[in-house]
């Protein structure tokens, strides 16, 4: 199964797959609007805006598993992201990223790009997965890795 085959639901409730993103460089992120790292929304949006014309997208997957820092409904999350952070990059329905109810996409991502000491578990909000144009998961970045720090890696992939 490839990255593009996973079923996902948009934040507005539409079902589909990631197939529309085939051929793009992606940064897939588990997000939370009440998290101390929520200021990264602005940096993620900047990346999305800057590199989108070259075939790049940020994909945000809200998650409330970490200290319930994403407590709202999907519509409340969408509103908070737009009003508080100016987010226009694609957002998807709230999911779990760890445990028995983890979304299959995140099971795939964590298997393909492991964390510290080979860990599969996501440690906190704003863990980021960089994916190349062929759908290969290249690297996992932690919560403290800022969008600005990831930009050079994105540029390398876009210029291949």
From TrEMBL:
Active-site residue list: 35
Entries under Gene3D superfamilies matching the protein = Glutaredoxin
Taxonomically, what lineage is the organism? Bacteria, Bacillati, Bacillota, Bacilli, Bacillales
Q: Which family does it belong to?
A: Belongs to the glutathione peroxidase family.
- Annotated Gene Ontology MF terms? peroxidase activity
Q: What's the protein called, per UniProt?
A: Glutathione peroxidase
Q: Which organism is it from?
A: Paenibacillus arenilitoris
A biological process (GO) of this protein is: cellular response to oxidative stress
Which top-rank group of organisms is this from?
A: Bacteria
What is one Pfam family matched by this protein? GSHPx
